[in-house]
Amino acid sequence: MSKINDSRRTFLKTSAAIGVGVSAPLIFTNAHAAYRNEPKGSTVTFGFNVPQTGAYADEGADELRAYQLAVQHINGEGDGGMLNTFSSKALKGNGINGKKVVYVTGDTQTKSDAARASAKRMIEKDGAIMITGGSSSGVAIAVQGLCQEAGVIFMAGLTHSNDTTGKDKRANGFRHFFNTEMSGAALAPVLKNAYGTDRTAYHLTADYTWGWSQEGSIKKYTEAIGWKTAAAVRTPLGAGDFSQYITPVLNSGADVLVLNHYGKDMVNSLTQAVQFGLRDKEVNGKKFEIVVPLYSRLMAQGAGANVKGIFGSTNWHWSLPDAGSQAFVKSFGQAYGFPPSQAAHTTYCQALLYADACQRAGTFMPSEVGKALEGFKFDGLGNGPTEYRADDHQCFKDVLVVQGKENPTSKFDVLEVVEVTPRAQVEYPASMLGGDLGPYNNG
Amino acid sequence: MDAFLLQVLNGLDKGGAYALIALGLTLVFGTLGVVNFAHGALFMLGAFCAVTLKSLFTMEKVTLDPDKLTAWGTPMEIRTPYVVELFGDFGNTLINLSVPLSILLAIPIMLLIGVVMERGLIRHFYKRLHAEQILVTFGLAIVLQEIVKAQFGANPIPQPAPAMFAGSADIGLMLGFAENAVVYPWWRIIYLLFAAVVIGLVFAFLQFTTFGMVVRAGMADRETVGLLSIDIDRRFTIVFGIAAVVAGLAGVMYTPILSPDYHMGMDFLVLSFVVVVVGGMGSLPGAVAAGFLLGILQSFASMNEVKSLLPGIDQIVIYLIAVVVLLVRPRGLLGRKGVMES
Question: What pLDDT digit, counting tens, does each position of B37-48 carry?
Fold first, then answer.
């Protein structure tokens, strides 16, 4: 009996060891290709990993609309959008490297584990050559790590935390969107002009990577202009009712409230701060002010009239007059009946930039595509002259400071651009945010 | 002192919402013995009654202005709400008062939803395990919230309070503090008063009407009441409908405080269950008392002075209380002897 048990145990152990040994290298390798998911047929597959459910589903839907538009334009359908204004003329409207672009989609649910699972599925089952999208820094960092392991390029969507191209940067990851460091650098001079240098700020901060990053950057730049920080209070993500965090602000001696919140949290905290009369208050002989460092038009709509007069920053806005922005707004507006959000813009740009890099590199091999993106200088995509910095894979471009519009003409017309901060003013050394790109992984 | 007073007010206000939801939950548990995880969804559906009424009031007549173009080259739309076109200033008043007027819409709709939910689904699970009840009602809650998301989207939809209640009241001045030392939003004060009135009405209904007397008798001994040829099931169905109305009204009036989205019910559900457990499963006074008590404790735990001593306490204080109560007094603060006790 003991012999039978022993041999069965031995058999199971051996089988498990062989199973693990055989399957482990297969998880992220491609035995007969030069690189992961090398396209063999007439098409190449993009993987759009966006929040289709959960709190950022509307933003995700806008990203998906933009991606679909980008695929049309790359394949030569529609009016061409920003391909007509893009400074690089490598793409000819006939796909990439002779292959038409098709796509698969995944639902990040704005949860790191779900986002990694959907990205993994698109890479392993659908043969996606790259992954792009997302509306959260936590998700972006998680998916970026997965793409690095898998050997595909990750073109980040809406992710604003410094960490994405800072301490958590990866060779296979690239970000077009700006970050909290740039928001701080752009906002501080505008705040100084509007509210002076003798101010005391109180921060309410979403308690996760993006919130900490933004709080740090805004504190750094506002303290540099002479402001003091009364307190920085962390609030749970999705708190809903922020009244217990807002009431201490009333008697804290602060005369500025900085809301390091995004999405639903920002809508609720701003609405409630206004209800508590903060904007009608006078402290230290000065009018109390609220600042929302990261704005999105979609969430500004959610906050309604409460955003009027409030400063913030944004990566892009549909009212920009340059030819690239106008071409994109025209394509998007005619296709969907409303203007694109900044999430839609950054994801559209990322799809085009990736396609262009593959075309210029003449291959889809991640290391070659990455090298084509590194140090790439371009214009005509709505943000003025831009560079994909080689040292950290972060795009550097002008940053917009916006203010809630006093007299909106439509429900989309809630923000106005008050300052276009030049790139030189928001640039910082790549080493400042730490991290290491490491080597490319081709799978 | 002013900070203390403000946190008491916050706690009472928050507690008002917890108490209203927990009241319905415990009523359903006390009468039908059902653990209803879809109760938070009823709170959310009530909020969306307000969204719906406002959408109806703000339905717009769209005309195209051929002289003005949008940024994407199509003619600019000129939008005028039909109610304003039909009734002029009165139309604007209707839009302004859409949240309180939603109460009139929410009462019949929530009653209907409650009755349909109970007759159509919940009654099939009366004699099933609590775990099965939780699974099916939780599933129902997810279905309801996905329906709402498909219809209204995922983003919060702002519902402003009527203009006359949009500002804040200087409560401090009334109590002898300095000017602007204790200001509190008018609508939150109204919500607190509203919660007190609804709770009072539910208690009065159960205490002073024949219907309520029979329901209370049924809660105490369902079989004996049935033996007296009283159709207790029909009454319990109506009680379920009333619980749905109470949750729905709590949701309607909460919309100016928290812009409603499809997930708001889930955010309140877990807290409300803790309130019910702390108050005592099936105990109406327990639910109300625990609602206010936990609301106030949560507010005080969020004070910077407290958080500096006990970091993160604001996140866990309610659950800590629940653990202590379950360990020391499993039946809850005002629960009946034997309930939740071996």
Answer: 999 999 999 999
What residues in B contact A275, CB-CB < 8 Å? 161, 166, 168, 185, 187-188, 256-257
Question: Which stretches of chain A drop beneath a pLDDT of 50?
Answer: 1-4, 20-27, 29, 31
Which domain does A123 fall in, by range? 43-178+319-397
CB atoms within 10 A of CB A100: 15
Return the structure tokens found at A239: 């708190």
CB contact under 8 A, B157 and A302: yes
Q: How many CB pairs under 8 A join A and B?
A: 124
- Residue A32 phi/psi, 5-degree rounding, is -105, 15
B166 Cβ partners below 8 Å, 6+ apart? Answer: A275, B160, B186, B187
pLDDT in tens, B247-299: 999 999 999 998 898 989 988 888 888 999 999 988 889 999 999 999 999 89
User: CB-based contacts of A439: which residues, under 8 Å, 6+ apart?
Assistant: A171
Which B-chain residues 54-113 have CB contacts (< 8 A) with chain A?
Answer: 70-74, 77
A127 contacts chain B (CB < 8 A): no
| Residue whose pair of structure tokens reads 């319990």 in the numeric block | B236
- Which chain B residues contact residue A268 at CB under 8 A? 156, 258-259
More confident residue, B153 or B42: B42
- Same-domain pairing of A76 and A95: yes
For residue B21, the enclosing domain spans 2-56+97-210+237-328
Q: Is the pTM of this model over 0.80?
A: yes
What's the one-letter identity of residue A76?
G
Q: Do B6 and A267 touch (CB under 8 A)?
A: no
With residue B87 as reference, give the H or E element that holds it: helix B82-87
**Does A236 map to a domain?**
yes
Tell whether A224 is covered by a domain.
Answer: yes
Confidence of residue B221 (pLDDT cuts 50, 70, 90): confident
Q: Which residues of A touch B181 (CB under 8 A)?
A: 251
Q: What is the mean pLDDT of residues B166-192?
A: 87
Average pLDDT over residues B70-97: 91
Please indicate, yes or no, whether residues A187 and A303 belong to a single structural domain of this protein. Answer: yes
Number of folded domains in chain A? 2
Alpha carbon of A240: minimum distance to chain B alpha carbons (Å): 7
- CA B117 distance to own-chain centroid: 17
Is position A327 within any domain? yes
Average pLDDT, chain B: 90
Residue A122 and residue A236 share a domain: no
Residue B78 included in any domain: no
B233 at the A interface (CB within 8 A)? no
